[in-house]
Task: structure prediction
Amino acid sequence: MQHLDLQVIEQALAWARAGEPVWLCSVLATFGSSPREPGSLLAARGDGSHVGSLSGGCVEEDFLERLRDGAFEAPLSEIRYGDGDDEQPGRPRVSLPCGGILDVLVERLHPDPATLVHLEVLHASLMGRRPLVRHVVRDGGRVYLSEDSGLGARVEQDAEGREWRLRIGPAARLIIAGISPVSQACADIARGLGFEVIVCDPRQEARAGFAVPGVEVQSVLPSQFIASGACHAATAVVALTHDPRIDDLAMIEAVRTPAFYIGVMGSQRTSKARAERLRRSGGLDETALERIRMPIGLALGSKTPAEIALAVMADIVRVQRGRPRDAL
Result:
């Protein structure tokens, strides 16, 4: 399935190219229970047509009804849903049934050349070119872009409260080197977290027993697939087989990519021996070795394949969100 943010920007770009104004909505913050995380996008046009989501449906209905009634003509609007003051004139007419609070940024984009260029750059970022930050200035609604690492919270505000910073970039990708029971559990968890998951294994007998819906399986050595240019800055690479013929080669290629997370399964003793092999046979220097998390994952005391997979994915999400281990 196509990354939802990509669908939103592609539709916004199509409407703008057709000369229609576009309302681009972003979830700024959530408090309490909320089905969509900060940074989630929705694009709409004046007749209520829309792509994307802000909540489970109640927020969208209220926003689109108000849009059709002629609201949100300013370049920038901020709305809060669910704070218990919904009867005040001009405020949203619904409360969230989950009891949460949702802050939404609404940008009215005029279909001019500047908007087209802006949306085209966002589209390129989502297609894997490079992660970006959208800076939205609250006074006047000016928008500009800057390059980014792709790691950290999806929405931030500057210290003075003058602008919002919204991260945008390629869909998170997980490349799993080799099939094992841990690989299967890891792929399953990653799909639930919204990752694009690709599993690589040249062994036909291993692929025959692998079945996780929505996961792409490549019948090649993981190192070959990684070397083909499969990694962008939102990619995590994990090796989970205990087979050095698969795992070591994958690590040698992964450190040459911009992947934000690289890790390989094994005990402390196995990891020490692997590091020595990668120095001696793989030619990796200390800088490259420091990029590889070995042993992989958080130290949760994991024993079963599912527990190990949980530790791996938890560590990947930790790094993706820019959280240091000592902040957990």
Remarks:
- The chain has a mean pLDDT of 89.
- The two ends are 32 Å apart (CA to CA).
